Amino acid sequence: MNIKNNHLFRFYDYLRLGQKLSVILLLIFVVGSIVSGLALSNLLNQNTQREITTQALILMDTMNSVRNYTSTQIQPELESRLEEEFLPQTVPAYSATEVFENFRENKDYQQFFYKEATLNPTNPRDKADDFEAKIIENFRSGQVAKSVEGFRKSNNQDIFYIARPLQIKKSSCLVCHSTPEAAPASMIKRYGSEGGFNWQLNEIIGSQIIFVPASTVIESTRRSFFLTMSIVLGIFASVILLINYWLRKTVVKPVVKMTKIAEVVSQGDLEVEFIKSSNDEIGELADSFS
Predict the structure, then answer these.
(1) In the beta sheet, which residues pair with residue 162?
(2) What DSSP line would sit under 98-137, residue for residue?
(3) Of 52, 88, 209, 237, which is most buried with the most CB atoms under 10 A?
């Protein structure tokens, strides 16, 4: 390794001044591009996650509005029919899920998936899997207060998720979920008496979760990265080229001229003059030679 380094230093020593400046500026460009790329990639990834999280939270608030509308407007109007026929449309969770599925017809939200995962659900489709159950238990234990986000693995696919606790805040929910005896007979007939009971007021019984494939996050980040990085590299390259041009014009060329004049003087021609082209250190060097 030391031998290779010595060869590199020897090679560098044999370069002309202009070539050395070009090598240094090229190294600055390469290192700066790599560092800028890593920093930009991390920043854009965080920004993309924040943007998707913001969209997910807005969607959750929208679903909460649907839930509230269902429990305050729809359910009271159809409550008298529940003994004869159970209507899933009166259940806030069912309404929110169905509305979200219709909402996904918008191409901007086709990659979003919504679930009201519950530990003890009435409808089996709301049953929390092991990963979702851990999230709910964290909410129930107080380890997480408002929301949690991150990535999970499902069917060999990385998925980004954002979750909020699902809490029983209205006593009207307990009409169907307190005990099997108190629940509408039509609901028992449809879903049975095993799940969705013994809930308590203010109890966290599940979690609202929105899933987005990680590929969506990565693709959005990649597009922003390539666009932004192209602009950064273009500006960076332009600055490096300008600096290289300026150094060659103000440093390399005057030094080369003085070198040639010094060679002429060394051959005995003492009539030539060292031309002073500036008042900086290069100009002072020309005066010294004169």
Answers:
(1) 149, 210
(2) HHHHHHTTSGGGTT-EEEEEESS-SSGGGB--HHHHHHHH
(3) 209
Which pTM was predicted? 0.64
Digit-coded pLDDT (tens) for 168-197: 887 777 777 888 888 888 888 888 888 888
Sheet holding 204-213, edge to edge: 113-118, 204-213, 157-167, 148-154
pLDDT tens digits, 223-251: 777 888 888 888 888 888 888 788 777 77
In angstroms, how far is the first alpha carbon of the chain from the final one? 46
**Residue 94 and residue 71 in contact, taking contact as beta carbons nearer than 8 Å:** no
